[in-house]
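U., I forgot to send this yesterday:
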Amino acid sequence: DALGHLLKDDTPPLATLPDEDVVTIAKEILQNIYTKEWSEAGQWSALEANLYKLSGSAAANSVAAGKLVMSTALTDYLRTFIDATEYKLGKDTGVKEPELLSKKRSVGDDLVYGPVNVSSTLPGNTFEVWTSSSANMKIKEKDNEKSSSEAGKVAVVLGAGNQSFLTIIDVFDNVLRHRRPVILKHHPLRAWLAAPYAMILDPLIKRGYFSQCEDVSVEVTKMLLSHPSVKHVHITGSFGTAKAVEDILQKANPAFSFAKVQSMVTSELGCATPQIIDNGDFTELELVHVARMIVAGKKANCGSNCLSPQVVVLAKHWKQKDLFREKLMEELKRQPTTPCYYPGSVEKNRSLVDACKQFGSKCTKIEAPSVSEDTKVSEDDQVVVIECGTPGEEGFNAQPLLVEAFGPTLSIIELQSEDENEMYLANVVVPYLNDKGNIFGSLSCSVYTPKSKGSYDREALQKVLSTLNYGTVAINQMNLFGYTSALRGGIWGGHSFETLGQSGNGNIGDLFGIIGNNTGKVVVYGPPLESKPVIDNASPPPPVVLDIVREFVCTDSILKGMGNALALVVRRTFYGTISYLPVVGRFVGCK
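Result:
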């Protein structure tokens, strides 16, 4: 039925629609988001909190945060797509050039666009898009056959299991950017997303460009992928699943070359995400904040994110390494633990830790309180720190670097170095991490460097940014903001030099067409390290604050946002007050 909805003869091919019509569709979707009716559809955010095994205040925070993240991600993508397409349509008639395109500089062979703000709600955080056409000669050869935008053909999006907003962004990217009609197969963990998605994507549904179905079985999914109308598949998931999809497509299309089949699949997969600490002289506050950001990223979703910090990279002769370890352990104890809900995560990480213990590596489980009094966490939910040693030395354990943990393990390696060597990052770290025989994936990473080493535009650091082959390189910031940048003109995906495809194939974003068929990356710049980090799991903002921010984000005018936020505060104050009154509070206060 879902396929039939997309294959009606009277539906104009999406690939042939003029840009003006596609902008109209995007604006209609944006208006649906502004109504906020979708935010209560099927009580999806409460079901999400239940999936995460959260109760009490943690569940309330999850509900509010889920709605805010969804609102912000979708509005950022749509607004950027509309701006980019309208600029394309009107640039010959004097339409103002977007800020990201207007700022250009060169670094070696790279052309750099930006910096621009990552988000209006994150002052002091900016990003750049780096691209180099000369690098095309080095990228793995690709099949030159046309892959997937043929009229009358369909793309399948396989839903992500770990975040609710990822799948709908994948739908946007395929329908709006690539002009592919999409059938979405929901992940079995998040079948309840069908309700809000149906409300948001109604402009696509009624035009015959989008349909969705629940996960039924592996065999039914194989039948869907093998259907002759399916010419493209996009997956956010694991490396193993992506390879299984390629195998299904190859069997369904035996006449296709392997390169052709690969070109039919785009994917955003995982990474053993490195957190690189420069070997300079940090203040104690800088070290605390570095540790705080790493731990916040590690404990989010109990480590079940493709961008979760996994490997801390230290210089062996860095004089502050022991002090940093102390701060890291303190943060792991201070920031609360959330339950591991993702299927197989506990077992995978338990097996990894057991193997490391047998190898002889020091493995330390760091006990921390639960995220709320009503939320139960177990020993298996706590983060285990694995000391891997130094590559090339006796006792070095590479196992935790060669897989994506997708759970609560954090490994530490020490690379050979000279104390205070200015070229440590360029000469030691970059070659080690670029070699995929040493570490899994190329999706994203963070580099933390002290103020004492100089400004971000210093030549030594810019060389590192140019040569570090990761899709996102974040400087003094959590690498998760690389994804945020993709919604505003950047990209999100594995680096194109990583020919094994461990972090996937292709990218999302690139809404201004800066990268196209070239190689590229996003560089995110955070504020100085002595600034308080944006995210601290030990002190999350209360739900009402998240709801107020959402009122400002999810509107087409600031005045409306202010009015809606004021109404929300008055309403919450009224119900909060009346709930203390006898009898009445029993019936009204619960609202």
